[in-house]
Amino acid sequence: MNGHRVFVDCKPVRANPVLPREFFGRIIEMTAQSQTEKNKAIVIDFFTKVFNEHKVDEGLVNFKPNYIQHNPNIPTGLENIRKAFKGTTTTHTDIKRVIAEGDLVVVHHHFKFAPDSLGMAVVDIFRIEDGKIAEHWDVMTPVPEKPVNSNSMF
After folding, report:
1. Strand-pair category, 132-142 with 63-69
2. Model pTM?
3. pLDDT range class, residue 32, cuts 50, 70, 90
């Protein structure tokens, strides 16, 4: 036993017990889960700092310099997203849900450029790479003044 005693259910077993495959699968699952939670936190931090606190430079620290933008109205690159939101002081977003899987984080939120506007229902998709936001897609729909149904967009 190489001088090491390992006990399972108060019975000594050999020092290097063979663990079932489920044990290792659970470790991998827990690691992936914690990485997914970290990815969600990175994106939520971006939303909070840029859109609600209006601290654009602080909100962009978790972006890769070669960030890829798929929104056709904003050129690709970190500096272009900085230019798009720098100086905005009236934006606000209310995050409704955050969904993450692997390196992707999806945020469904109610975004407003001004407090008195109806705003937009937005779904943003981010790809995280090495702990940084590497890529972004979005879909936006204006909130109508008079919707044709009573279902919320959120």
Report:
1. parallel
2. 0.78
3. low
